[in-house]
Amino acid sequence: PPPPSQVREQRAVSATWCLPVADFDTWLACKPQVALSQLLTARADGSLLSLLKREGLGTAIEVGVEEQTRSFAVVTASLALTEAGLAAWPTAMGHLFSYLRLCREKGVPSHVFDDAKALAQLGFRYAEPSQPQAFVTATAASMPLYRPAAWLSGPSLLEGAGGPPTLRQLLGGMTPRAAMVEVCAKEVAPKAPLSEQIYGTRYGRQPIEGEVAAWEAAPLLPELSLPRPNPFIPKRLAIKAPQTLPRKEGVPSPTPSLLPAADGARVHFLADRTFGRPRAFAYFLWRSPEFYTSARTAVTAELFAGMLAEVLQEATYEAAQAGLVAASGVSSDAFTVQLGGYDERLPALATLVASTVRSFEPTQAAFERKVDILRRQLRDAERRQPISLAGYRRGLALQPARFSNEQLAAAAGEVSLSDVAAMQEGVLREAQLEAFVAGNLRENEAAEMVRGVRAALPAAPLAAERLPIRRLRRLPPGGATRQFLAGNPEEPNGALEMYLQVGPDEGDDWLHLLLLSQMIDKAVYAELRTKQQLGYIVQCGSTEADGVRGLVFIVQSSVQPPPELEARLEAFLRLFRGTLLLTSDEELDTYRESLAAQMQDVDQRADGQASRLWAEVATRRYDFGRPWRSSKRMRRVTRDGLIGFYDKYIAAGGAGRCRLSTHVFSQRSPPKGPLRDDPLPDAFFPPTADGFGVDWAADRAVV
Question: What is the pLDDT of residue 245?
Answer without folding.
Answer: 84
